[in-house]
């Protein structure tokens, strides 16, 4: 009825497909992260065990987490500072001007931290490493973690949770009043 001339239906549906011995794909097809391969070539990966040794022996290393504020709050490496990935290039150089500062960048999976590490290299930082496999890899080796927004470098406004989920009744009232006023605004036209 939409104008397509060659439309077919699989007799027996998915069940018949499977019963005939054919396979189904599961999940979403993985899409390559734009720029990740280039970023991986620009940074040095550091395994969790090696990082644990360096952090113990060297107090000069700056640990920087670029996951979301919620991910950082849930778990991060002890002593790690947090900055939203979106503010890295704008805020970090003003806070840490020393280009020879040893920096290890982390995030939950190692992907955002790799992109952030490459951005720091492009900003001129010389000693940038990325935690291989991210915080999840660190955790899989039963290494210690911290929780909470303990060391945020900027205001954690990267994730906004609906008041209907947080249970903040006053925020929900403000939102509903805004909706009502918006309706009245267009009602007058």
Multimerization status: single chain
Structure classification: alpha/beta
Shape: extended
Q: Which regions are unreliable across 5 or more consecutive residues at pLDDT < 50?
A: none
Query: Gap between N and C termini, in Å?
Result: 39 Å
Number of helical segments with 4 or more residues: 9
Largest sheet: 5 strands, parallel
Query: Helical content, roughly?
Result: 40-55%
> Strand content of the residues, in percent?
5-15%
**CA gyration radius, whole angstroms:** 24 Å
Task: Provide the spatial order of strands within the biggest beta sheet.
Answer: 1-5-4-2-3
Number of strands: 5
Order of helices and strands: HHEHEHEHEHEHHH
Short description:
42% of the residues lie in helices and 9% in strands. The chain contains nine helices and five strands, in the order ααβαβαβαβαβααα.
What descriptive keywords fit this protein?
9% strand, extended
